[in-house]
Every structure is written in structure tokens, then in C-alpha cells.
Design goal:
The complex is a heterodimer of chains A (341) and B (328). Chain A has 341 residues and is of the alpha/beta class. Chain A has twelve helices and twelve strands. In chain A, a hairpin with a 2-residue loop joins β4 and β5. Classes of the chains: A alpha/beta (341), B alpha/beta (328). Chains A and B meet through α7, α8, α9, α10 and α11 of A and α8, α9, α10 and α11 of B.
Chain lengths: 341, 328
């Protein structure tokens, strides 16, 4: 048994737009040559803003989308080389939880049936045995089994997200892609769901790919964090190392832009100029260079694409000036006031 | 200093059949000239309804209950004629929303939309209005404002659209800007830009701002004072520094502890048990007591007022007067 559960190599996924009535057809590389590996039992946080390609990457890994080129191996098996039957068997082992549980649950199906359906489809349980499993799954995710007859709209957002998690767990997967699982939830409910995900991982020995735009949320679950920008992986490292000292200026900017609930640190930010460029026409050289705040930024950034290279402690970074990283403002001077202080 | 806006015992209800949702239920606060008041709370706490009530944008089946007072420049806005109200809305008090795409007209250029707003409030020529709208786009940091003025909303990014909304809101130099989750739909790096812009414009123009958000991190960086809402009421009010240093209401404390922090890792996030009750059935007594770790009998009986915690802090909690009841 390999210690790597998911191995992604040179993955590319393009989308073609139809260009509208008179427009030109355009090709967008949503995922542009990403290589990553996820160890068994590990939580990899995948972070990026809109258009970074993080969601597309998650879907391609599960083969919910076909890749343009590249490979994904799951427990050593080539995911894109499988026939329908083998793929179906593999699907049992990898599942996904979506951001918007109201959009991913059938509004006309009771939530009990939503959790039961995968059990039946995969031939894992039927009849009263399935009922018992559904009730147990509800309890496991902290829902009263009395809710099995409820419809999605009768539940709160947090409860629906628990249903989504129970449904993913029903087939006893080893690997779950969590695609922004708490982004739509209020802070107090978000904390409940994050704790639940941590418990489930521990209890069931799960492996997670945790996709989020919010670095603070990722910090609480991830062992390792990978950062994407415009389809490319710009940095990956052990979570603690990345938060303590990011090497890529984009990671630094993301960290400093995240609002901290502490007025003492909140006013110090690296504010990036402009918007992320259109993925239709990514800039030459380093894709981040037009917005990069690094003082050493030079012609090489505009002319040459920095390759992802390996640094100390299993870190990877794609920046020409990674050896002189931009410091995070306010880092290290953060005071967390004690309650009642 | 006299407050610019005085809200007293504001109550806004929504009646559907036999059920009455008391979305805002007795909120009182002051807004002073030039300050930013952060209005914080989770979904369903009443923060957006409160903002809409200030501008009297509540429609049937919603209703602002008689006896509520929203006083601006000595007049109760709730008693103004539609004509007087039009002068205030947009002219004196302007508002921006979370989703710029739904507030902008997709078939008009952004320049034309700003010019339209200007001409609705002032008698100026088309030429003058066009000229001023370009100036406003420049003010909100839109590059090539002349060119951008002739573009349509879909040609702009989400961040640029929000800048256009801000330009439009500022066009009549309002004394108060109400910003309802203006950065929630934006990416974090764009959010940072818009927050810096709003803070800079506020200083430059000397206007007061009510900044509504669910995000304690956002409000920490922009507000001078913060009011926390729960169950249709303001449950704590303080200067920003005081609120973050010594949150007094158990709900505020719990919110602060539940928020994942980027600058510190907790092994477990603390959670608030249960969920927010529906506005049709607020619990008796303190609205938070069924979820509160410190609650005792008294809390289910009587709702306290906002009790003073000198110098600059008030909390709607009996612990203020009986601190020994706090459980460790």
C-alpha cells in the first residue's frame, strides 16, 4: 500500500467558450499543468480566488470532468484509464461535498432518501438495513434521525450541509473532496461543521482535499496547503510553514488581505493593484507579475515563467525571488487578548 | 457632539398570515458625524432590515411599527412626505449593496447611470453630468475613467462594479453612507482594495458610514464603533477597541471565539450550541439565553436594557450587574 493516495501529474483542463454571436471562440486553461500529491490520511488545503481553477481541479480529480491532458492516479490506479464499471467501483472510494447544499440536494427528495440513495445504487444495503444505516449516518453527523422524512428546504443551511456530508459518507469513501463546504454558512455554524469534519476524519481515517478561498478556514483543518493563481500552482507547503512564512508574494498578499478579528492587526495589509487578469489572455512570464507587490520584481518576471521548484522541508514555490520572500506585515506581533483582559 | 442620525425603538415586522416576524425589535442607536459604525450579526439578526428601514425601503408585508423614530437633522424620517423623502434618499443618505450586478442597469453605460443619479438630484446639464460622472469614477480609483464611463456593467469585474456603485452612492455627496455587506461577494484581495477605498473616501469626504457585515474581521479594520445584533436587537455596543478587548455579551464572546483565525491555530473551534431561533418565535427573556452557557432563571424572565460598562461600552446582559454569575 502506497503512502500516496492521490497523485496528480501535469494536469491540464481547458474550456472552450462559444464566443457568442460574433465573438471568437476562446480557450481558457482553467487548470494549467498542476502536479500535486495527497498522502493517505492527509488533509490538503487548496486555496485560491475566483478563477484560480481550484474547483475545476477538484472535479477533474474525481473525473466529474475529463482532463485535457495529464494523469491522476488514485491508490495507484489511473483514474482516466478506467472503463465505466471500474470507474463506478472507484467512485465509491472518492466522494465530494459541495458548497451549496441546497443546490446539490434534490428538493423533491427527503433528506433521508438522499442519504439512502447511494447505498442502494452501489448495492451496499437495502430495506430495513439501509434504514438503520441512514439513521446511524444521521447520528454520526450530528443530526436527529427524526429528520429523515424532512425535505431540504425544511432544514437550516448547517443541517443541509450535514446531510451532504452524510450522503458522501454513506458509501464509506477513503477520500473526500470538500469544495468550499462552509463558505455559505454563518460563523457559529461554520465552526460546528469544521469541527465535525475534523472528527470524521479522525474517526474514519479519511483523506481530504479541502478547497476554499478562505485561508483562515483552511488553517484549522489542513496539514498541507497548496495555493493556486490563474490555473497554476504557485506554492505548496506544510500548513504551519506556509502560514508562518509564505514564500510566494501572492500567498503573502492573500494572508495579509484576510481580515483578522483584531483591530490591532487589521489595518496592515499588502493591497494588490488591479484585478486578476482574464484567464482568456494570461500575462506572459509569471502570471502574477502585473499585480505583484514584490520590490525586486524585474524584467525576468515579465519574460520568464517561473517553474515550481523544491525548497527546504518539502516546500514548493514558483517565484523568481522566492529566496527573498516578501514579509507579511504585522506577522509575529499579533496579540490575542485573553478573555476578560 | 450631536448625533447625525438617531434611531429609537425601531421595530420592523413582516406579517404573513397569522405569523408575525419581528425582524427588528426595538433597536436604538446613534450615528455621529464622520464616524463608521459597524453593524455585525449573523443571518436573520435583522441587520439588513434595519438598514432598509432607515431609508424606508420596507415593502408590504413588511411594516415599520408606529412609535419607531429615525431622526435625521431634527426630522423623523418616518413622518416625511414622499417628496421630502426623495431628497434624503440618495441625496443625504445613500446605500450600497452586496451584489453590484443586481443593482446596476445592464443596458445603460455606467457613466449614464451615474449621470442619471446626478440629474435626479440636481439641475445640471447633460454635459456637466457626464463630466462629473467621469470625475466620480476617477475618485473611486477606476483607471481610464473616461473610457470606462462608456462601458456597460458586464464589461467590468466585480470589484470595478462595486466601485461604480460607490461612485453612484457618493454622487450627491451624502452625509451618511450605508454599506450592506459591500465586500462579501468579492475575492479577498479585491475586498482589501474596496475596504481601503471606503476608508479613504470617508476620511476625504467626512461622511458617516454604517457598515453592515457578518465578518468580525472586516469590521475590526474599518469601524470606529460596533453594534452587535442578535434576534432583532442590538445586544452590545462599544468602540471597536473595547469590543475586541473585552466583549461583554456571551454571544459576542462566542462569535469571536468561533471565527477561525488566520493568525493562530486552535485545535478545536468553539461552537455556539443550537441555532438562531426564527423571528416569528423569539424566546422570552434574553433572546440568547437558550444558547448561553451562563444563563440562569432570571435570563428567561426579563430582557435587560443595554446596560452601561463605562467608559464606552454597553451590553444587553444581566451579567453586567451580576458578574459573579459568569461560569468559568
Amino acid at each position: 500500500m502506497s503512502s500516496l493516495l492521490v497523485e496528480i501529474e501535469h494536469l491540464v483542463r481547458e474550456f472552450r467558450t462559444d464566443g457568442g454571436l460574433f465573438g471568437k471562440r476562446l480557450t481558457v486553461r482553467a487548470v494549467d499543468g498542476v502536479s500535486l500529491a495527497i498522502g493517505r490520511g492527509e488533509t490538503l488545503g487548496l486555496v485560491g480566488e475566483s478563477g484560480s481553477g481550484k474547483t475545476t481541479l477538484g472535479r477533474v480529480i474525481l473525473r466529474l470532468l475529463e482532463p485535457t491532458t495529464g494523469t491522476v492516479r488514485f491508490d495507484g490506479e489511473d483514474v482516466f484509464g478506467l472503463d465505466r464499471k471500474a470507474l463506478r467501483a472507484l467512485r465509491r472510494r472518492m466522494q465530494i461535498v459541495f458548497q451549496d447544499s441546497s443546490g446539490s440536494l434534490n428538493p423533491r427528495m427527503t433528506v433521508g432518501n438522499a442519504v439512502r440513495e447511494p447505498l442502494v445504487v452501489h448495492g451496499l444495503a437495502r430495506g430495513s438495513e439501509a434504514d438503520g444505516r441512514v439513521a446511524a449516518l444521521f447520528r454520526e453527523v450530528g443530526l436527529d434521525p427524526g429528520y429523515v422524512t424532512a425535505y431540504p428546504h425544511e432544514l437550516s443551511g448547517g443541517q443541509r450541509q450535514r446531510v451532504g456530508i452524510a450522503r458522501a459518507l454513506s458509501v464509506e469513501p477513503e477520500f473526500i473532496v470538500l469544495d468550499e463546504p462552509v463558505s455559505a454558512l454563518d460563523v457559529s455554524v461554520q465552526a460546528q461543521v469544521l469541527n465535525l469534519l475534523a472528527d470524521l476524519k479522525e474517526r474514519r481515517g479519511l483523506t481530504y482535499l479541502f478547497i476554499a478561498h478562505d485561508l483562515a478556514v483552511v488553517r484549522h483543518l489542513a496539514d498541507r496547503v497548496a495555493v493556486m493563481y490563474l490555473g497554476k500552482l504557485v506554492e505548496s507547503a506544510a500548513a504551519e510553514a506556509l502560514y508562518a512564512a509564505p514564500l510566494h508574494p501572492y500567498t503573502t498578499s492573500l494572508l495579509s488581505a484576510a481580515p483578522a478579528p483584531d483591530p490591532a492587526v487589521a489595518r496592515q495589509r499588502v493591497v494588490l493593484l488591479g484585478d486578476a487578469p482574464s484567464p482568456h489572455a494570461p500575462p506572459p512570464g509569471c502570471v502574477f507579475h502585473p499585480r505583484c507587490p514584490h520590490p525586486l520584481k524585474s524584467d525576468i518576471c515579465r519574460d520568464e515563467l517561473p517553474v515550481l521548484h523544491k525548497g527546504e522541508g518539502g516546500r514548493w514555490v514558483a517565484c523568481h525571488y522566492a529566496h527573498e520572500p516578501l514579509p507579511v506585515p504585522g506577522h509575529g506581533s499579533t496579540s490575542v487578548p485573553a478573555p476578560g483582559d | 457632539m450631536n448625533p447625525l442620525l438617531k434611531v429609537r425603538d425601531l421595530r420592523t415586522t413582516f406579517t404573513i398570515g397569522d405569523s408575525v416576524a419581528r425582524a427588528v425589535d426595538g433597536a436604538s442607536f446613534d450615528l455621529f458625524p464622520g464616524e463608521t459604525l459597524g453593524l455585525v450579526g449573523e443571518s436573520g439578526c435583522g441587520k439588513t432590515v434595519m438598514a432598509l428601514s432607515i431609508l424606508r425601503l420596507i415593502e408590504d408585508p413588511g411594516e415599520i411599527v408606529a412609535g419607531s423614530v429615525i431622526e435625521y437633522e431634527g426630522a423623523n424620517l418616518l413622518e416625511l412626505s414622499p417628496r421630502e423623502l426623495r431628497r434624503i434618499r440618495g441625496g443625504e443618505i445613500a446605500m450600497i449593496f452586496q451584489e453590484p450586478t443586481t443593482s446596476l442597469n445592464p443596458v445603460l453605460t455606467v457613466g449614464a447611470q451615474i449621470a442619471e443619479t446626478l440629474r435626479a438630484h440636481e439641475e445640471i446639464s447633460r454635459e456637466e453630468a457626464r463630466h462629473r460622472s467621469v470625475g466620480l469614477l476617477d475618485l473611486v480609483g477606476i483607471p481610464d475613467p473616461d473610457e470606462r464611463a462608456s462601458q456597460y456593467p458586464h464589461q467590468l469585474s466585480g470589484g470595478m462594479q462595486q466601485r461604480v456603485m460607490i461612485a453612484m452612492a457618493l454622487s450627491c455627496e451624502p452625509k451618511i453612507l450605508i454599506a450592506d455587506e459591500p465586500t462579501t461577494a468579492l475575492d479577498v484581495t479585491i475586498q482589501a482594495q474596496i475596504l481601503e477605498l471606503l476608508a479613504a473616501l470617508q476620511r476625504q469626504l467626512g461622511m458617516a458610514m454604517i457598515f453592515i457585515t457578518h465578518d468580525l474581521g472586516v469590521v475590526a479594520g474599518i469601524a470606529d464603533r460596533i453594534a452587535v445584533m442578535y434576534g432583532g436587537q442590538i445586544i452590545e455596543e462599544a468602540t471597536t477597541k473595547s469590543l475586541f478587548r473585552r466583549a461583554a455579551h456571551p454571544y459576542t464572546e462566542a462569535l469571536l471565539q468561533a471565527a477561525p483565525r488566520i493568525d493562530a491555530k486552535a485545535d478545536r473551534l468553539s461552537v455556539i450550541p443550537g441555532a438562531v431561533p426564527p423571528a416569528t418565535a423569539w424566546p422570552a427573556g434574553c433572546r440568547f439565553h437558550p444558547r448561553c452557557p451562563h444563563a440562569w432563571e432570571h435570563c428567561s424572565g426579563a430582557v435587560p436594557d443595554l446596560l452601561p460598562l463605562p467608559p464606552e461600552h454597553r451590553a444587553r446582559c444581566w451579567l453586567v450587574v451580576e458578574p459573579h454569575r459568569r461560569r468559568a
